[in-house]
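Task: sequence in, structure out. Protein: Trk system potassium uptake protein.
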Amino acid sequence: MAAAMLVPALVDLGDENDDWQVFIGSAFLIGAFCTLVATATRRKSQARLSQRYGFLLVTTIWVFAPTVASLPLYFSSLELSYAGAFFEAMSGLTTTGGTAISGLDVLPRGLLMWRSLMQWMGGIGIIGMAILILPSLGAGGLSLFQMENSDRSDKVLPRVNQLAAGLLGAYVALTIACMATYVMLGMGAFDAINHAMTTVATGGFSTHDASMGYFESDAILIAATIFMILGALPFVIYIRAFLPRRFQRWRDPQIPVFLVICAVLSLTLAASRRTINDTPFGEALISSTFNLVSVITTTGYASEDYTLWSNAAIGIFFTAMFIGGCAGSTSGGVKANRLVILYLLVRASLHRLVRPHAVQRLRYGNQVISTDVLQTVTIFFFLFFGTLLTGTVALSMCGLDLTTAFTGSLATVANVGPAFGQIIGPAGNFGSLPDPAMWILSINMLLGRLELVTVLILLFPSVWVD
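Result:
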């Protein structure tokens, strides 16, 4: 993180903006502190990573990362409260995309670069956490189904470091491809770099208050839609694409389900706009697909205020806020694999009412769904809606109206970004909210990004001791 702060420092230095001193000072402070800690804790023997320690480690990292990332925002020329700076950093690193900053068009380029870098670093951090760390803890999306069996010959890659390198390579390659596409479509180099990082990370931070609507280009909206979808697919698929035999044997039902949901909802929304608003179907399809995919993948871009389209559009976007992308991607939300399992469970339960003595085995792709997996999915949905309602009540106590409180809680727990209403809708931001509301929303983003269980399990005293 300290090293990454040198990038916006160089940008501000080149623009002769005094904020470069803030980034250099923050980088030096954090780098010095980390060096002292690393020196003081250097040992010959390595500590054993228990499951309980793993939960604590993951949560601690994701609390201290925005604490560190918020320092340049707080000490810069933005004049943010610390709650606002922490909210912005948490939103960036969790790739939520909600912002407390207005006037992006005139913001120093170093701060814009730092916001994009936070989302890009958070995106690869999320992938690594979801694929390399959380499965071993029994929490998170891919822990429902290990992507590799005990048989070494069926593993994606034989070593963890090879898998990590493959994931990073795929992430960087997608980012470069997205940036090059934006440049070819007429976007300026600085905008292209920033938007490429936040598109692939499905984060949604923009360099303009009008977000993607600033460019007024259907071609850019189409390109952004494609790369948002690519960022919302499980990144293991890009490694398997170079392993033809293993790719052919691999089946992940969540991918076609996710793509079908995006297609069906986009066509439905475009048809409703053609019927209700008399918008030309081609224009309606491009803007509807872009904005809807942005919400489903929890990116948070917007080309216009879609809450003004119609009540039908609001209902479709509200539904889309729950869905999310695929497990093992940079997106948040419920995620498509859980929706598949929930559907299979409901279907089996209804079938059992007709044939109570029938023996049924639920399968997800090539794997039989165990009782533990079904229990994990049930617990997640209970915690998701429990956190959503708790956040709504807490935000209401901060003086927010019900629409702002509920959709704000949903947008942060699902890591979507923009919510509904005049304050925090697609045309607004979170900057006018009181500091207590900022802290509540920051906690929501942390809970949503770490799949709820990883954080909430630390609240039980039985976990603290052997």
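The longest helix spans residues 109-137.
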